[in-house]
Amino acid sequence: MVTIQSQRYFVDVGFGSSGPTHPIPLVHDRVSVNVPPQTVRLNHTNIPDNTSRDSDKLLWVYEHRNADDAPWTPTYCFTETEFLPADFTVMSHHTSTSKTSWFTYKVICTKMLMDPGTEQIVGDVTLFETAIKKRIAGKAEALTTITSEEERIRALEEHLGVKLSEAERTGIQGMVSEVK
Known about the structure:
Elements: E1 2-4, E2 7-10, E3 24-25, E4 32-33, E5 39-45, E6 59-65, E7 73-78, H1 85-97, E8 108-115, E9 120-128, E10 131-136, E11 139-145, H2 149-160, H3 166-171
Antiparallel strand pairs: 1-2, 2-3, 4-5, 5-6, 6-7, 8-9, 9-10, 10-11
């Protein structure tokens, strides 16, 4: 969360293609356009697993939907509790080392696409494992299917602008996520 001129905002720059593309005011049920036609909102509520129904224990639930007539999809939730660097270290350690975290065995990279005329985000290009897809205005297009690690390295640079060092190129060898 950040505060700008006494207004608190939710900001998440690393969630991926369904994540927020701009700061969202910390206001219950205010709908905003994300990457058209996708809309997002924050819902200040309890979640099913909460053991307490006290109003002071509500969570902020980030939700998105890909069309106005589609149901809202709860994506994740958070509290207003302040986190310190040590907290982020522990959370990052789990997601990057636990065998139950898909970040340890899948490769994903997303690049948002901006319309240079309006400076608005209009879509994304996402690599997920062995596929690269481009999505603009809610319409997805498969760009390529990857059959080797060398192809993935080239595709990362060509489609997402990510140039790997030699150490990064060899670092995936022998890993469960290596394309063979």
